[in-house]
Amino acid sequence: MRIKFRCLPGYRGHVPEPRRASEALPDWVRKMPAAATSPTRGGIDVPTVKRCPPFLDAVREGIVFPLVTDLHVRGGEISWDWDLPEVEGRLTIESPIGVHAPEQLTGAPFRVDREQFAIKFSNFWAIEAPAGVSLLFSHPFNREDLPFRTLTGLVDVDAFTRGFVNFPALWVDPGFEGTLPKGTPVAQAVPIRREALELEFDVGEFDEAGFAEQRAFQTALSEDPSVYRKAYRQKRDGRGRDEASDL
User: 121, 138, 119: which is closest to 191 by C-alpha?
Assistant: First the structure.
């Protein structure tokens, strides 16, 4: 699937480009052990989430949009030192972040101070996807280490091709002081084919054969926790059924 990204004239090279999420894994995923000793399990070694294919596949799925410049956070204020080339006729903002008034969160059960502004990470790339494809934007998957939480939105970028999709977020770590570095993922997007879904739910119990198959699977899983990765995980993003040690 080809997705086009376009910025204003003169911006390329000044604005970080979107990246495949598989190429932007956080260092802590690479460095974390595949197993850890568990005192709560009697001192045995247990696999960490690094050995969980669904966890890793989510982190590596889709597109990551990076923070465009360093943000310095001091005393509850955010500052930056960043200049973009002048573009004659430009009608868009050049600030790396904006804000949403607290009242725009009225009625939403978000865990933030009622007087707190929501921030908005600026995106300088217009996106064009093939016909029938939308992008689901969200907080970078499994990135609980970040001091903000990007809100989730679904945008029809096959039609909305000349505007810029910015990323509203809540600052959830009021004690954060320091620099949020350029390149930090601020949003992750997954392409979704926009098709009418007529969902039907078939709810019931396993029959005798199905129950036997389920028990056989549970037995195999207890004997080899990697059975999902070895037998069921499908190829994606050019990667096969790789081991966590490949990271």
Answer: 138
Residue 114 neighbours by CB distance under 10 Å: 9
Question: CB–CB of 239/22 below 8 Å?
Answer: yes
> CA-CA distance, 62 to 109, in Å (whole number)?
28
Task: Write down the pLDDT at residue 69.
Answer: 96
Q: Sign (positive/negative) of CA torsion 47, 48, 50, 56?
A: positive
The pLDDT confidence band at residue 104, using thresholds 50, 70 and 90, is confident
First and final C-alpha spacing in the chain: 25
Tell me the one-letter amino acid at 164. Answer: F
Are the C-beta atoms of 65 and 21 separated by less than 8 Å?
no
Predicted confidence (pLDDT) at residue 109 exceeds the cutoff of 60: yes
Helix (H), strand (E) at residue 221: helix 208-223
Distance of CA 167 to the CA centre of its chain: 12
> pTM to 2 decimals?
0.87
| Residue 179 contacts residue 73 (beta carbons within 8 Å) | yes
Dist. CA 168–CA 186, nearest whole Å: 10
Please say whether the beta carbons of 101 and 117 come within 8 A.
Answer: yes
Residue with tokens 């696999």: 47
3 state SS for 62-80: CEEEECCCCEEEECCEEEC
C-alpha span between 130 and 4 (Å, rounded): 9
